[in-house]
C-alpha cells in the first residue's frame, strides 16, 4: 500500500482513511482487508489517470480511439475495484453476524439451583428501577452467579421483560468478552466506511477518463456495428 497522495483522486478513497478508525493499530488484522480494498480503488484510479495522460500523447490515434482505449482500461479497473469492495463487505457481514451470535448466546446459571432460585425470587420482588440497577450492578461487578441466575432462566422468573433480558445478556457478554466486542465494533466501522465511501469510485472513475463515458459507449457501439458489418462481407 502506497502512502503517496495524488491530488487527482479524492482523499476519501485513500487507504489512510481506514487508519482513522478507532483502535486501528490494535485491530489491524480485522481492518487489513478493508484497507486493501481502499488501496485497490485508489491505485486503480491513479492508473487510469496515468494511462489517460500517456494515451493522450499518442499522435497516431484519433480522439475517439484514445477515449475508447482509456475507457476500456478503466472498465477493467472498475470491475476489479467493485469486486474487491463487494467481497470485503460480504466477508465483514458474515463475520459480524457470527460475532453477533457469539455475543447473544444463552447462559446457564452458575450458582446451585437453590441459590439461583433465591436470586430470582429476590430480583422479582424489587421495584422496577431497583431491579434494573441490581442487574446492571451485577454485570458491572462481575457477579456471574447473580447475572447467570437471572439471565439463564425465563425473564418472568426474575421480573424482567424478554427485551430487557436480551439487552442485559448482550451487555454481559460484551463485558465478559471485551476482545470480541472490540473486534465486532471494528468490523461494523469498516463495513460502514465501505458503504459510505465505495460509491464515490464511480464518480472518480468518470473524472479519470475525462467525464466522457457516455461518448465512449457511443464510440464502442459504432465500432462494434462497423466490425459486424465488415464481418458480413
Task: Describe it.
The protein is mostly helical and 233 residues long. The chain has 2 domains: 13-102 and 199-231, no CATH class; 113-176, no CATH class. Helices cover 73% and strands 0% of the residues. The two termini are 51 Å apart. 27% of the residues are buried.
Question: How would you summarize the topology of this molecule?
Answer:
Layout: H1 16-19, H2 28-56, H3 63-102, H4 113-124, H5 128-140, H6 144-151, H7 162-176, H8 178-197, H9 200-208, H10 213-231
Helix pairs in contact: 2-3, 2-8, 2-9, 3-8, 3-9, 3-10, 4-6, 5-7, 7-8
What's a concise summary of this model?
The protein has 233 residues and is mainly alpha-helical. It is built from ten helices and no strands. The radius of gyration is 28 Å and the shape is elongated.
Please name the defining characteristics of this protein.
single chain; 233 residues; mainly alpha; 2 domains; 0% strand
Largest sheet, in brief, is:
none
Number of strands: 0
**How many domains in all?**
2
Ranges where pLDDT stays below 50 over 5 or more residues in a row are none
Q: Helical proportion?
A: over 70%
Mean pLDDT: 91
User: What class do helices, strands and sheet pairing give?
Assistant: mainly alpha
Q: What amount of the residues lies in strands?
A: under 5%
Give the termini separation.
Answer: 51 Å
Shape: elongated
Q: What's the oligomerization state?
A: single chain
Question: What order do the helices and strands follow?
Answer: HHHHHHHHHH
Radius of gyration: 28 Å
Tally of DSSP helical segments: 10
